[in-house]
């Protein structure tokens, strides 16, 4: 007896397998993008395969938790933008697969890769083009942290054109030789692939000087303290202020960046890249013009002061690179924190070693500290 009939099945009723003509529909696409790990930006190739199998989405390539949530952002964005969702298995690989990646910078590349692989968008204009941006559920594009180092990494990898969110396009345009196209939605990016023209984004102007800049000219008296500040600025010396509360120690320290020489172009680029990767830059801002000034509280952790975490994040000593790090109430800082500053102040770099690898952050800052004279007298006794 036919086993199929025993279970009430008729083999003749099963649909015949569909054989697609070779080359009729692209099932594999590649879109270039970039990702961060700590402060390091690396170019990434987003490979999208739409193949046989149960409908589903698989993302591989060592993304972090934010990256693994890409399906929950990309699928609603595709649906709300009016595109057809694939009814087959979608596999996305972020190559190189052995390097860890963080953030949602690959969302736009994943969405474009799915559309190209399913034949809903052409692939011809993707040659030499990369895509950066986080997708909102309504298909709008948001800027991503570290746009400047990401754009630099892509340019070094041979990318000549970049599609990115409109709010971070002026920052990406700071990279010379890279044509940046600002897109506000996923639909605008697809229209560009279909042949629509988008103007190239102009670089963002340098940061304006703050309206209320703290100037040393505002200080009256304090001849010795002012002289010490000028010597520290001229020679790059670290400084310790000792005096009673209210003597003006913090006030003088806040005015030190104003008498330091302006940032050189290379220094400004390094500082801007560092603060961009740390997520401290507002959208649309250009190169930083003033030297950074950081004043952490004495309850700061070791990771907050010198860097750490997973993925590694820069600490206050790195965020003050080419600027001033001010530690008020020095005696309140834990001894371990002060010991941790010794090597960065000597070498100008911080190396964070984790099981996943090592990350090196710049940390060449001018250290200014302050403490009360009563505490100093107690320590001397």
Brief summary:
With 381 residues, the chain is of the alpha/beta class.
Give the integer mean of the pLDDT values.
86
The CATH topology assignment of the largest domain is Ribosomal Protein S5, domain 2
Q: Assign the CATH class of the largest domain.
A: Alpha Beta
**Number of H- or I-type helical stretches:** 16
- The first-to-last residue Cα distance is 103 Å
Please provide the count of β strands: 15
- What is the approximate shape? elongated
Unreliable stretches (pLDDT < 50, length at least 5) are 1-26
Strand order of the biggest β-sheet: 1-2-4-3
Q: Major sheet, described briefly?
A: 4 strands, mixed
| Count of the domains | 2
Strand content: 15-25%
> Mind telling me the C-alpha Rg?
27 Å
Specify the structural class: alpha/beta
The appropriate CATH architecture of the largest domain is 2-Layer Sandwich
Helix content: 25-40%
